[in-house]
Structures are given as C-alpha cells and as structure tokens.
Specification:
The structure is a single chain. This protein is mainly alpha-helical and 387 residues long. It has 3 domains: 1-8 and 254-387, Glycosyltransferase; 35-138, no CATH class; 139-224, no CATH class. Helix content is 49%, strand content 7%. It has helices at 9-27, 64-76, 79-90, 105-120, 123-137, 154-157, 170-178, 184-199, 236-253, 256-276, 298-311, 317-334, 367-381; strands at residues 38-43, 51-54, 140-141, 146-147, 160-163, 210-213, 220-224, 365-366. Strands 2-1-8 form a 3-stranded antiparallel sheet. A 3-stranded antiparallel sheet has the order 5-6-7, with no helix packed on it. It has a two-stranded antiparallel ribbon with strand order 3-4. Strand 1 and strand 2 (51-54) form a beta hairpin. The protein starts with 8 loop residues before the first helix and ends in a 6-residue tail after the last helix.
C-alpha cells in the first residue's frame, strides 16, 4: 500500500471548526452563558445535539471536550474558542485535589489541563496536572508492577485489575517526571508498561481488556474482558489503546522493546482489520461472529490513525510508509459522508460504539472519537505538538 493524497485534511479541519461552532451555539443557555461543568459525551441516533454529563472523576470523558477546544484553538487561533476552552478547563481543576477515584484521572488531565498548559503556559494548569500525576501514582502496586484501574472492582475480579485503557494514562506520569514532578513517576510508568507487555497480550499481539493479578503476591491470575465480545476476543478499541499507548511509551523512553511491541500490536490489528471489515473502520470487536453486520466503531479508527501517524516516524522507511498509508486511508474513510455527521448532528463523526455488552452508546457519535479524529488531522498537517 503506497501513500497518495486521498483527502484534503485542511477541508476536514475547517469542517471540524464549523462543527465546533455549531455545538457551542447549542451549549449556551438563553442568556448566552455556558454551564462549564457539563461536558459533551455523546449524541445518540436520532439526536442532533450533545448529551452532556457533569464533570467529575467518575466521568472519564470529562476532558475530551476541553481538549477538542484547545486543539481547535491551536489550528485557528480563534480567541473566542480559547476563552471557552479556558472555561471548560477551569471547571476540571478541582479534580486534582480530590481523593483518587480511578485511573481515568489521567485521561481527564491529559486532554484538558495538559493541553491547556501547552497552549497558555498557565502555571495553575501545570500545578494541577502535576498533582493529578501524584494522585494517579497512588494506585500503583509495587508487588504487581502496574497501576490499579478500578479500585471499586477489586472484589468483582478477585484481585488487582489493570485494563488496557490504562496504558494511555502513563503519558501523565511521563510528562510529570519531565516537568518538575517526582522522577519515580517515570519508573512507575515503565514498570506498568513492562508488566502489561508481559502478561496482558496473547502470543499474536492481541490484548486482553483486563489483566487480573494477586494483590499481595503480584502473580498474574487471568486475562478477561469487560467491554469485548469474549475473554479471548480482540476488542477493537482495546487494541487501539495498546497501539497508541506503546507508541507514546516509546516516545518518552526510546527503549527498543517498546517500539517492537508497538509494531507487533499494530500489525495484528491491521491484519485482523483486513479480515473483518469492508473499509478501514473496524467492527467493534473483531471476533463478533456477525462480522460485517456487527456495529462499527469509528472511535477505534481515529485512535489507531492517530497512533500510526506517530509510529510511522520511529520505524524504517518501508514500514513507516506502510503505517502512514494505512493512517491516511483510515482518515479518508472517516472523512466521507458515511462517517462524518455533516448536518445530521453537531459532532464530527457518527458510528462509534461505546460499551457494547452493556448496550450503551451503540452506533453513536461519541466525544472521544471526535477528539482523536481532530488530533490525527493536526498530526497530518504537523501543527500538533507532542506534549
């Protein structure tokens, strides 16, 4: 597969800017005021505006909307967007001083406060992000070697649980160690990466969603799923987290073992995508026996495209061209009328799947799909700075 310009990324970015402005008009009340504590989460089939949820440590998507606004500002330099981005980001500052709820403090902080700090240099954002990193580190179990994902589910799983999504949150620890935080944060992130790499992947490079360890001895007990089709299946978004996560881990560590693992988990994803999809957008779980009749997950394609656009820079020329081409084809498909929301609603994209086993957010527009779609577009034009 050889790269050629398949779509106009600047047109796609202008489309995102337009959709953000449409969404902002819907988010103000009759007095023209934003309720900054209510964060867009999804638009379900048939709806046209964002369903919002209260910003909290229990709402893991709280940071994606501020992140979208900061990235939109990065592209447009629109001062009105910057003002609103500050409002939504300020609404999350309180979380860094709260008792830790679970690993998602990473997602929330990376996408809002860290991006806000990058855009503005505000020391209060940096201080909050560093405090959030320290909170996240309290979930680390040195016997196991990973960060506990869900303290509330330890009894349910029979031990220390680590979900694949958690690999994404290591960026907060790496960043903090590099920006004035405790250096042990770096070591925790490396330990989590190594332990997860050792136990949470099958020989072919596909991952378990959840790894369960004995809390006291640290011994690996089992790999299971929470959001996938089965314990042995390849849940598409979980594999996407792994590709993005290990690419990011290599960015911070430059350790060859993490680069090789990123390549391995990317290659099995691309192989299975070719086997199970009629385009570059995967079904929600690549082992769903309905195959082409199974719901798609555009959010996975966005995450993977974004990851491949970084990973392609770290590998040899031939492999890099392969990854880059796949990313562009993914972005091409995502940027068609089949997946872009256009005038159907105010999101960027349709056809994502949230939590299929729970029947939640099926064939919906979901905020994190839009976040990673925009991040990928900015990586294509080269203006997105790696934090």
């Amino acid at each position: 597969m050889q790269y050629k310009p398949l779509f106009n990324e600047n047109v796609a970015l202008d489309y995102c800017y337009s959709q953000v402005n449409h969404a902002l008009k819907d988010l103000v009340d009759s007095n023209g005021t934003y309720n900054y504590s209510m964060m867009p989460r999804n638009i379900l089939p048939g709806d046209t505006t964002w369903n919002c949820r209260q910003a909290s440590s229990q709402e893991w998507c709280s940071g994606f909307w501020p992140g979208i606004l900061w990235m939109t500002y990065d592209y447009t330099k629109d001062k009105d967007i910057k003002k609103v981005a500050k409002g939504y980001t300020d609404a999350l500052r309180f979380l860094s001083s709260q008792p830790i709820y679970d690993h998602d403090i990473g997602f929330i902080t990376i996408n809002s406060l860290m991006k806000g700090y990058e855009a503005t240099g505000r020391e209060d954002y940096k201080k909050c992000a560093l405090a959030a990193a320290d909170s996240l580190a309290t979930l680390y179990n040195s016997h196991v070697g990973t960060i506990l994902s869900w303290p509330r589910h330890v009894k349910d799983y029979g031990g220390h649980n680590t979900i694949m999504d958690n690999i994404m949150n290591l960026e907060l620890l790496f960043w903090a160690a590099k920006n004035g935080g405790d250096k042990r944060l770096y070591n925790i992130a490396v330990s989590h990466s190594d332990t997860t790499m050792r136990y949470q992947f099958r020989p072919d490079g596909s991952c378990y969603h959840v790894a369960v360890y004995d809390t006291l001895t640290g011994n690996f007990i089992k790999g299971v799923t929470h959001q996938g089709y089965s314990d042995s299946s390849m849940w598409s978004r979980g594999q996407a987290w792994a590709i993005y996560g290990y690419t990011m881990v290599y960015r911070f560590t430059h350790e060859q073992r993490f680069l090789e693992h990123a390549k391995k988990v990317a290659d099995i994803y691309l192989k299975r995508l070719n086997e199970t999809s009629n385009d570059m957008i995967p079904i929600w779980d690549m082992d769903d026996p309905r195959v082409l009749d199974a719901p798609k997950d555009a959010s996975t394609a966005c995450i993977v495209a974004c990851a491949l656009l970084e990973l392609c820079q770290y590998v040899d020329k031939e492999k890099g061209e392969e990854y880059r081409s796949h990313a562009f084809y993914m972005m091409r498909d995502l940027s068609t009328d089949l997946y872009q929301s256009q005038n159907k609603n105010v999101a960027f994209l349709m056809h994502s799947t949230g939590h299929h086993p729970a029947g939640s957010e099926i064939d919906a527009s979901i905020i994190y799909a839009d976040y990673y779609y925009l991040e990928a577009l900015l990586r294509i034009i080269g203006t997105h700075k790696k934090i």
